[in-house]
Amino acid sequence: MEGTANSMSEYLSVLIFIFVGIGSVLFTFFLSRLIRPHNPYKEKSIPYECAELPIGDSWFKFNNRFYIFALMFVIFDVEVVFLFPWAVAFGELGLFALVEMIIFILILFFGLFYAWRKGALKWV
Amino acid sequence: MEFAFPEYNLRLMAPEIFLFLWALLIIAYDVLTKRKSETTAGYLALAGLMITGLILGFTGTGHGFGNMFVSDTAAKFFKIIFLGSAFMAIGSSFGIMREKIVNHRGEFYGLILFSTVGMMFLSSSNELLSLYIGLELTTIPLFVLAAFFKDDKLSVEAGIKYFIVGAFSSALLLYGISFLYGLSGTTDLVQMKINIAITHLTFQNIGVILILAIVLVVAGIGFKLSLPPFHQWVPDVYQGSPTPVAAFLSVGSKAAGLIAFAKIFVNGLFAFHHPDMAPNDWGRLVALLAVAAMILGNTVAIRQTNIKRMLGYSSIAQVGYIMIGIVAMNALGMAAMGFYIFAYMFANMGAFAAVAIVEDKTGSCEISTYSGLARTSPLLSATFAVFLLSLAGIPPLAGFMAKFYIFAAGIQAAQHDPGLYWMYWLVGIALLTTVFAIYYYANIIKQMYFAKEPSPHKVTYNFPALTVLLIGLAGLFVFGIYPEPVLHFASGIASSFGIIP
Amino acid sequence: MVPVSAYLIVAIVLFGIGTVGVLISRNMIVMFMCIELMLNAANLALIAFSRSLEVMDGHAFVFLVLTVAAAEAAVGLAIVLAIYRNRETINIDRFSILKW
């Protein structure tokens, strides 16, 4: 650890940063309140859906099919977690790691292939 | 930054790699073929397990992947148990396949094989990271398998209960592991054995964190092992899930939990077994849980009316006996633990196979279904009786030798070290609870053989299920009368864990 | 520099919230989220130890734990969907056909 005074001053800059961050947001809100016209009517408070009038409540149950697609997304989402450190260290790791990564991706593609054969990619 | 390339030694991993690819192959076969035969996927899975066993026989010993992966006697012994229990679970699943699962046969077998691969990785892991991943790879397919009849309320409910308990326990285990890592600065278990002892000697105030770590890890693996008070899920999940899956859970998953437990405690926390280390002494904590398991499992099993629930409680009790071997922590204890789980595999997988055969015929798992079964189905009744007697520990079956070695190990530990005098109590309680066990196992045999009315059902066998029954029967008699070769093999487990006889 | 104990305290608090949530919540989805919270508390502890001990193992551990958490969530949500289809509820108190 460095000196206490040094680490305290680091905290101070963080503190100032936080205050400036919050303050700037509040200041712009305050500024826009000063200059904007004030004219509320009912249509302004309904959810905006591409200029169409919304039908029903926005709190409805989503279709289960979204879940399948979310799952497909998660497979390749997590894949990137492993691809990224590999890509960063690619220079040192070389060919062996490339082969390993190809095997890894092939296994994941098997999952995609399975989902495709089972018809999970079709929106019925 | 310099990268030190670890020595990979891929050949040591050959059985796991092969089995994994085989599981993918089975799933691919299932999704690619249009006209599905009822049994091909199942026979493919059985063949894959046998080939894996052969490859395992030719795999040498050694370390690989920078000491993360180790192939030693303990790993091989447990891999044989995992492969055997998967084989027997799949063998007893053919009837259910025909009746209930039509569209997902390949997935069923693929998931069992994936879980087996996870167990095999777990038994070969030499450090916390691969151990945790192996444990997760074991349990996540089992969540799906427990809920496999997705239109059956019982099965889905079993799945959700198993999932919540499993995920919760793995989070507890992970948090405990993070403390062990923080205390030792390494994930390597052999290194950890030294580092934690040094940390303990250097800093006197790590006690609280170490206790927390021990309790969390015991709880995390205790859920998998169904040690009380972490056992409540067991009867529910066994009752609800498909019978072959319940069988696999009761042997494969339990053996996996056992090897994980042994790796962390016997290897990593070797120094903290003795009462001198109190309050960091895990030996007495585990002994208490084992006592609770034996008493609770054996007494509650008496009151059950569903055979799968009864076998669930009986498996809780069996884990209590096995834990005596770990707590004794001598060479005989380790060997006895191995032999016990080996004998338990034959008896319990066989018993579940018999339950599956009866269930296929009658659609029921109530104990009353078995009333008078001996007159209509003599072969099934006789084999089932043998399995139950072995679970109870009646000579000359393998279950008796297993209990004998376990108790001998406990007494040896108590004689060897006056600090472990409570081992006498442990063995005494174990002997006492065995009597209860004989009562409820004998009750089923009484129902089958001494009922007034003959049973209205006559079971039919399919070839794989019959094979499983006969394997179980042969294993129990052969290793009950001639246990030396297995015991000799199992005594290698002790040296794998660095315990010198 | 923030001392490692600060991270550990945050981790303990997160873990506590997660554990209590799993134990008292009756909604399956909330229980999932609490389990994720517990896993992330462990992740935080692993990273904190890894930084303070200056060994890299903890970082690798966290990557794999993230994957495990994703797999667990996928399987868990699938089972919840299955149970919702045949029971029309995800309240854990109602899942009591199997009783001890």
Task: Tell me what the structure shows.
The complex is a heterotrimer of chains A (124), B (501) and C (100). Residues 1-5 of chain A have low confidence and may be disordered. The longest helix of chain A is centred in the N-terminal third of the chain and has 32 residues, at 4-35. Chain A is mainly alpha-helical and 124 residues long. Chain A has helices at residues 4-35, 65-88, 90-93, 95-117. In chain A, helix 2 (65-88) runs antiparallel to helix 4 (95-117). The radius of gyration of chain A is 26 Å and the shape is flat. Chain A has 4 helices and no strands. Helices cover 67% and strands 0% of the residues of chain A. Chain B has 501 residues and is mainly alpha-helical. Chain B has a two-stranded antiparallel ribbon. In chain B, strand 1 and strand 2 (69-71) form a beta hairpin. Chain C has 100 residues and is mostly helical. Chain C contains 3 helices and no strands. The chains are: A mainly alpha (124), B mainly alpha (501), C mainly alpha (100). The A-C interface holds A 1-2, 7, 64, 67, 71, 74, 77-78, 81-82, 85 and C 1, 63, 66-67, 70, 73-74, 77-78, 81.
Task: Please sum up the structure shown.
The complex is a heterotrimer of chains A (124), B (501) and C (100). Chain A has 124 residues and is an all-alpha fold.
